[in-house]
Every structure is written in C-alpha cells, then in structure tokens.
Amino acid sequence: MNKDRPNEEALNEQLSHGIEVPETNMEPLQKQVRIVGNLLGEVLKEQEGEAIFDTVEYLRTGYISLRHKDDPQKRLDLMAYIETLDEHTLKQVTRAFNTFYVLSNIVEEDYLHRERRKLYKQDDRKLWQGSFLRTVDEIAESGISAEDMQRIIDELRYTPVFTAHPTEARRRTMMTLQRRIFLIIDQLNRDELTSEERGSLQNQLKSQIQLLWRTKEVRLNKPTVEDEVRYGLFYFQASLFEAIPMVYRYFERATRKVYGSGKINIPSLLKFGSWIGGDRDGNPFVTPAVTRNAIRLHMQEALNEYHCRILKLRSILSHNIEFITPSAEFTTSLKADEAELKEYISQRKTELFENEPYRQKLDYIAHRLNANFLTVRSHITGVKADISSGALIGAYKEVTEFLNELYLIRDSLISHNDQYIANRELKDLIRLVETCGFTLYKLDLRQESTVHTRTVTEVLKQFTPDQDYETLSETHRIETLANLISRVNLPKPNPESLSAESVEALELFDTMMEMRAETGDSIFGTYVISMTHTASHVLEVMFLARLAGIVGTDARGKPFCNIQISPLFETIEDLRHISEVLTNLFENPVYMDLLKVSGNLQEVMLGYSDSCKDGGILASQWNLYNAQKQVIALTDSYGVKCRMFHGRGGTVGRGGGPTHEAIISQPPDTVHGQIKFTEQGEVLSNKYGNTETAVYELGVGITGLLKASQSIVKKHGKYADNYLQAMADIAISGEESYRDLTDNTEGFQDYFYENTPVTEIGQMNIGSRPSHRKTDRSKSSIRAIPWVFGWSLSRHTLPAWYGIGTALETFRKEHGDLLLREMYQKWPFFKALLSNVQMSLFKAQMDIAKEYSNLWKDKKRSAFIYDKIAAEYYLTVRELLSIAQIDNLLQETPLLQYSLERREPYLDPLNHIQITVLGRHREFISKSEEESPWIDELLLTINAIAAGMRNTG
C-alpha cells in the first residue's frame, strides 16, 4: 500500500483544516522544495565532496523507485550497500537527509501561511476551518445573539501548558537558524521582487543552509532542568510575545465583522502554564531550589520584554502638553511619581521630556520595572543588588499596579480623542501583561501520590506515635486528615527524624510560601498529583500545605486556601473510579470549605499517555470520554465549577492530534469555557517556532473552545444511545486485543526492547528526566513518552492503533457496518478518533518494522510477535477504510496526503541506516566496556527520523 507518515500535530492541524488548494496551486510548493533541495545539494558538493553527494543521491533515487514499484531484491541491495558504508559516510548521509527534512518542513510551513494570507485577503468569511471569522460567523448563523456570544466569551479560558520532553532533541541554536530560513523563504515568494533581489535572497538562503550544515544538530551534554526552562522561554522570544496581541486582534476583527462594532468585548482569555521546573514526578533533578530558579527566570523574561516595550512606547507617545490635556487621574499619578522618583531619574531625561507627560510617565514606569528586574536578577545570581543608587526604589509590588498605570495612560489618551493611538502598541502591551503577568506562566507543581503518602506517614509518626497512617482504611485516612487540616494549631515536623524524600517534599511547600511572598499570589497554577487513586491522596497534599501555612484559618476564624489541587487520573482503572474519588472529596465538609474560599473551582486532570499505554487507544479514549462526562455531572450536582486538564502528548498514542478537532469532539455539554492541556516537545517547536504559525495554532485552539462552549447558552444533548453502546462494545474488544498482545504474549517486552532503540534513548543527552520509573523490562516501568517514541522510530506506531482492527471487525460481523459508518459521519468523537488513527497508520511501515524485528537474536519468537502485529495492522487499515468509505488513508485531506507522499522515500534509508548503526553499537558494547563510537550517529538517526516524521513521543 502506497502511503506516508503523518507530520506533527501542528502541521496536521494546518493541512487538515480545509484550506482548499487547487491542483495547480501545488506548483509553488513543489518549486520551493526543489530550490532548497538543489541548494542543499550544492552545499553538500562544496563542503563534503562528490562522493558523499553521490551516496545520498544513490540512496534517495533508489528508495524513490521502490515507492513507485516494490522490488525485494533492490531493497536487499540497498540495505547491503548501507552495510558497506563507514562511520563518517553514514553520519554525513544521515545529516544530509535530516537537513533536507528540516528545510522542506520550513517550506511547507511558509506555504501554508501564505495560503491562509491569500484567503484572508479575499475577504471571504469562510476562510479555513478554525479561523476566527469563519467560527464566529457560523455561530452567529446558528442563532447565537451578540448577548449570548458575550456570555460565552466571558467564560473562556484557554491554557496551553508547556512541559519538558525527554525525547525532544532540537537545540535553540538550530531553531533560531530555522527561523531565519523561514523569513528568507517567505520573502522569496514576493511577486514584486526584481531578479537581482531574488538572486540576493537565494544567496542568503544558501548561506543559512551552509550554517545549518555546519551546526551540530543535537546537544553535546545532557540538558539540565534550567536548560529546559530556557528552552521553554525561547518560544516567547521567538513568537509568542508577538503572536499573543495578534490573536486578540484577529478575534476582535471577527466579532466586529459579524456582530458589528462595539457589540462584543474580548477579554484576555489566554493564559500559559508550565511544568518545566515544577514537575518532579520521577525527576530527581527538580528540587525546590530548581523550582525557585525557574520562577525567577520566568519573571526575568517577562520583565525584560515589558521594559523594552515601555521604552518603545516612550519613543512613540511624543504628545506635547501644548496640544493635549491629560486626564485628571493621569496628572495626579504623574505628580505622585515625581514626588517619589524624580531624584532617581537623570536630569537630562527630566529636561528632555519636560513638556511630554506620557514620556515622563513611561520613564517612571521603566524605572519601576527595572527595579523589579534587578531584584529578580539578584535572586538568580545570588549577588545582592546595589541599593545606593536608588535603582531598586519604586518597584511594583504586584502586576496589577503596573497594569493600572497602563490603563491610566490608555484612558487619558482616549479622553483627548487619541483612541487610535491607544489601540496600537499600548493595547498590545496591555494584552501581553493581562495574559502573562509578571511571572509569564502559571507554574504547576507535580509529584506522585506515594511520595505524599510516605511523607504524611512519617510526619504523623511524630504527631501520633501510636497510630500507623499507612495501615488505616481509606475512610479513617480521610477522617484523620480532615481533622488535622481543620485544627487551629499544628506542630512543626522535626526534619531530623524524617527521610530525605520527606524533607524535600515538605520543603517544596515552604518554597511555595516563600515564592508567593517574593513574587505575589499569582505565580502558581495547580498542584498536580500523579497516580491519584483515592480521595485521601488529595487530602494528603492539603495537609502538607496546611503544615506550611498555605492553608489554614485566619485571625477571624475564617478558612483560607492558597493552593489549587488537581488530581491526575492516569490508568484505565483510575478513570473508572473517578466518580468515587471525587464524591468522597465533595462529601467532606473540610475540603469543600477550602474549595469554596479558593474560588469554588475544581481542576481535574486526565492522563492520555499512561491510560493508552495501559489499555490501548480504544479503552483509553472511551474511558477518558466517560470520565469527563462523569466529572462534569458530579461537579454540577455539587455546585462546583470544573476545569478539565488534558494531559495530551504530541502523538496519537499519547492523546495527540489536531487541537481544534480534539476540543470540539469532547463529550457534548461538558466544556464550560475553560480548558487546559499540555504542550510537549516537538509540539512546542512546531506550533510556536514561528510567529505566523503560533497565531494560527492559538487561533484554532481558541475557536475550538468557543464552539465547544456553546453549551453555556444552548445545550447540545447527548448522542444516540446506540452510538454510545457501540463504542462501549468496541472499546472492550479493543482493550482485550491490546492486553492480549502487551500483557499476555510471551516475550513481548523483550521484542520491544530488542527491536527498537528505546534502551539507547535512555542513554542519550535528550532530556533531564529518566526514561524509566524502574530498571526492569515491564510495561509499568517504562514511561509513556519513550514507550511511544520507541515504537514510532521502529515504524510500528503500535500504541496508536493496535486492537482497533479486531474490535471493529468483531462489531461489524455481529451488527453490520451501517451504524459504524453513520457514527463516523455524525459523531465528532468517533470521527476524530479514526481520523487520528489514519495518521498513525500512515506513519507505520510494516516492511521497515520487519527489518527492525530482525535485531532480536530470538528470531523465532520475534517473527511470531511481528506477524501478530502486522496482521492487526493490515486488518485495522481494511476496517478503517471500509467505515470511512475511502480507498486510501487520508483521502479526505488531499493536501495532507500530498505532503506525506513526497516524504516517503526519504525516511526509508534513514531507518535502514539506524538499523545498521543499532547493530554495530550493540555488537560493540557486547565486547567492550568503553564508550561506543556509534552513540553520536545513533542520536543523529533519531533526530533525523523525528524531523522526517515530525513527531516523536
């Protein structure tokens, strides 16, 4: 079957969102790919010589011919040729294919951006699916009035949460280079260029490709958590500081066009979260000190950006007092600034801006921001700031003080009819500050539930030596913890009799208190509890927060709670017990009192990755769907607001897929305006590496949320019972099939470890977090990300589809296919599920997976397991094509299909090179204790295949 692999979530989202591109319009994309390919060829010849270039061309053309017509003998000849290549040649060939993928991905991203611009210029309300204008227009046409639209929008809160990714291998240096290439390629497509200008740009492009070739693609050393923090901050520098205000502007324009000017107000509904520096589950390198430093680095980034923008505004707002009369409130504020800060502002500036009130005000604001910046900087460096110059005088205590000053300038400008000026750079800055605050992100903290249980057990041995907390029943645990939390006075634990783990767990809560005092109350998001099995797991965290003073009773006897706790339900079994856990919490009056005083909002996190690894994609998706319905019904019945937090990965096997479709396919009437989800690894770089794409990605996410939140004013109602029952039956069959393979097939885990690079992934300098919880070869030991990554690299992509073919065939044989086809056409959940599976089936390649299966020395057992996987693969393809009533995978998204087809021949040699290198590496380490010379080349192949497939774990 002729097919290709899917791109990453971001590219899939763009390619599948209904940008209608006529066949003839593909020529500009093809032409640009040829240009960068030819330039890369020139660089190869000039830098590495004809021999390397000829080797690359031989492999490229050879594998292209195999895609046109399979020839087993030629495939064997190509594999044999690869076996003859030495270490240097293999490395250069791998780098060449990797560089081509990087360049072609950039070309595609720019092409999609330009196609959207063309549609926008046509002033057509349809635009693309997920555009602000199309979405608002469709909602208005469905009968939603301006008043109801405002009600929906007022409830929106869209929160992407950045996480570190232990399989993301890109460097910031490379991403900066790629941004420059993107901009040059975009300029090359301007029609008005002269031949001389075009030639100059092509020379610039070639120079950047040369730099790309001369730059090491992967990290030299294992990254620290601080490296990962800075990696996350890169996206604000690269795109988000520019993209955030643009997103709001597009949303405002759409509502103006559809509902009229002044009818709809767009609040600042976008927030960002982060786990980087706060997620200590399984990562011993995330200490309280690291968390403190992460927060300060976030603040430094935000303050630096605001300071730069204030200086820019100061150069713009040159109003002279002779021509304007500022508002009375502004004048009063300026006089207060002069009284407090004038002596610390240089005489030259005072004279320069004497008759320019806004410049004076902005100069004082710049001074205050700089005072905040210097304070944060001193905490980061550990060097006490010099206070003798007065540089620290006047620092803002909290971000609202800064915002109020910006509002004051805005209102004053509007008061003398300068609203157009107020609505430009100043408004963009206000949007940024409302979105990011002083802390840039809300930092979530995460720890595994057993750590809290062990810590509470040790603490209570000090408080009540006769009671063993670990032996208590769940009912008694809840009762004990609730009584302790509600006490007015509690003793402090003695750290000398606690384990190091417990001391660090308690120190984290002390750090929360310390950082709230240092930075303000808004620094932290939620405290996420991994592997939440019971209500007591939540109350344990509340008790530890009580010990630190984050929770308690004030002087008036009123409870206070400055922590939000998010239980994370990850396994299939946990998802099935979610109602029981939450009911036990909501029935506890101590917990409910604390929940009410903290905003009456319960966040619940659903884990896509581990549930999929545990029971397969069908069981995972269906139990997540039902869990969400149960959570919303339960919180509604207790009068509690709820925000769902979706722990999605980049791949389908970890809950990935286009964000817009993922949101609108949530159970009907369960999205009430707020959504929060993780953004990981290559998803970050592909979504937020360029401003243009970041604007698009944030837009389609917000419009998905807008569509799904219509239940705020108009209920959808549940889907047909026969749909739900059919899906329940399919999920049961799928889970049985998946567990039969992964849990009950002898040697399956050995097959995974021997026939994929997963062991080598754990040895590489990719992420700070260990790839395994334990050192054994069990499914529970390995983390979800390397689990998916290993299967992806070896072209099985098994977690994203295994069991679906058997489940669909079983149902079809008993009930026929008419219902399944109807569900595919009419039920967004089922359509999104099978559409995402199509992408994963494209990514899989059974002939290459078979080559990987030969790595295991137990050939008989390996062949048996491979045959079982391959049979399910081909069954899944047949069943899915039948239900969707299509002839080829991704037939319904031709632009995506085209993009994938041209990638096919380039991945095959990379996989065969990786197989060769894996074999050489493993042979070397079996005979020597020295460091393998093949590790660098192996990492290069991982990086190159990830670039070609555009996703990893």
How would you summarize this macromolecular structure in one to three sentences?
This protein is mainly α and 953 residues long.
Can you describe this structure?
The chain is mainly alpha-helical.
Structural class: mainly alpha
Indicate the multimeric state.
Answer: single chain
Reported for the largest beta sheet, the result is:
8 strands, parallel, barrel
DSSP strand count: 10
The overall average pLDDT, rounded, is 89
**Order of strands across the main sheet:** 1-2-3-4-7-8-9-10
Descriptive tags:
953 residues, mainly alpha, 8-stranded parallel β-barrel, 63% helix
Q: What's the structural blueprint in terms of helices and strands?
A:
Layout: H1 9-15, H2 27-48, H3 50-68, H4 72-84, H5 87-121, H6 132-141, H7 146-155, E1 157-163, H8 172-188, H9 195-214, H10 225-259, E2 273-274, H11 288-316, H12 328-341, H13 347-352, H14 357-381, H15 399-415, H16 419-436, E3 442-448, H17 449-463, H18 474-486, H19 500-519, E4 524-530, H20 535-548, E5 551-553, E6 559-561, E7 565-569, H21 572-576, H22 578-586, H23 589-597, E8 601-607, H24 608-615, H25 617-637, E9 641-647, H26 659-664, E10 674-680, H27 682-688, H28 691-708, H29 721-742, H30 748-755, H31 758-761, H32 784-793, H33 804-815, H34 818-826, H35 828-843, H36 846-853, H37 859-884, H38 894-901, H39 904-927, H40 935-949
Parallel strand pairs: 1-2, 1-10, 2-3, 3-4, 4-7, 7-8, 8-9, 9-10
Antiparallel strand pairs: 5-6
Helix pairs in contact: 2-3, 2-5, 2-9, 3-5, 3-39, 4-39, 5-8, 5-39, 5-40, 6-10, 6-28, 8-9, 10-11, 10-16, 10-28, 11-14, 11-16, 11-19, 12-14, 12-15, 15-16, 17-19, 17-20, 18-20, 19-20, 20-22, 22-25, 24-25, 24-32, 25-29, 29-33, 33-37, 34-35, 36-37, 39-40
